[in-house]
Amino acid sequence: MESNNGFFNQYGGKYVAEVLRRPLDELEVEFKKAMADPEFVKELETIQRDYIGRETPLLYAETATKLLGGAQIYIKLEGLANTGAHKINNAIGQCLLAKRMGKKRIIAETGAGQHGVATAAACAKLGLDCTVYMGEVDVRRQQPNVSSMEMYGAKVHAVTSGSRTLKDAVNEAMRDWAANPDTTHYCLGSALGPAPFPDMVRDFQSVIGKEVKRQCAERNIKPTALIACCGGGSNSIGFFAPFIDEKEPRLIAVEAGGIGPGIGENASRMTGNTSREGILQGYKSRFLLDDDGQALPTRSISAGLDYCGIGPQLASLGKTGRVEFTSALDKEALEAVKFFARNEGVLFAMESAHAGAEAIKLAPKLGKDKAIVVNMSGRGDKDIFITCPVFRPVEWKQFLISELERLNDAKDIHDAELM
Questions:
Q1: Is the Cα torsion angle 352, 358, 364, 368 positive or negative in sign?
Q2: Active site residue 365
Q3: Active-site residue 87, yes or no?
Q4: Is 222 a catalytic residue?
Q5: What is the rounded end-to-end Cα distance, in angstroms, of the chain?
Q6: Which of 87, 103, 167, 382 is catalytic?
Q7: Catalytic residue among 28, 55, 78, 109
Q8: Which of 104, 120, 321, 395 has CB 3.0 to 4.6 Å from 152, enough for a Cys bridge?
């Protein structure tokens, strides 16, 4: 399952400037040492249990199963992990490793904000300085997460270059790391980038799949399929990891179908018609690229899936057929949010709702003796600025107007007190 010198068949590698070769080589050596050190592993497991709240539950979605009339649906509730998503698994692992290496400062990129929140929280827990790069577009649509990052003490930089989304946040983080390699560790949030990041992130996130495998065995569940959303791929590869070398179950990754198949309308790297092999941001994989090899614009209602590339291991597994790729449209993801909220009392994040949408499609096609497990990689509290304008447009507009009036009144009162 591990890479071969940083490659998964033809994908992967370490395509970086010379200034980053040394910190990447050092990171690879120290990661392998740490994972072979029982004391490090024990400390990590203790933090996973006492701080993250592992293990997370595996919920039988009884009502959803009955309504869909097919396979039994189970939901892995990663949204119940501390900070509200799976991202904390990797953030804690990398920050603990960085502290062991003597690094004092952590930088991170973030799209939907969950990796930024997780990294900021991990740094607060472990006593490390934290800086997060986030595209200006994502800052606007994910203000609750920006607020949380700052509450944990992180400095959030809004990236105004390029498309002002996740791709550009990654670029800025890489530039920072290249300028400060001796004091700084780049806590990359997904299973992509130059080696050894794809191996590291997968291994730290594999706790999800290991728990699912154990929980299913304890309850005599033999899943026909595992379903996860897929942007860069951290939740999906962690979810799939213990099953990759087995023939079953089916492993299904769901990309962002956005609003349609056209250029700039989606973020479908494995299922879209504009995807091609290329080298970007330090690794070789499949990307949405133009004829000159430049990243094309992407679109998704979910900031965490709005990325032009995919992790190299997932690209390789897609090419061999071990992982099946599909996509869900924005409107399908929104319907999945509503379906699982009203019928199971579980509020999916917009990213995770893409996996939920695929479960809604797949379950009725399978027999009642079959089972599928959906990874709810995060919960949807963070998405109120996205979902409320759709589900409650009038009330949401009135709320924002009243809040603006309240803030203006408070400012007027404050200004008057200072006079």
A1: negative
A2: no
A3: yes
A4: no
A5: 67
A6: 87
A7: 109
A8: 120
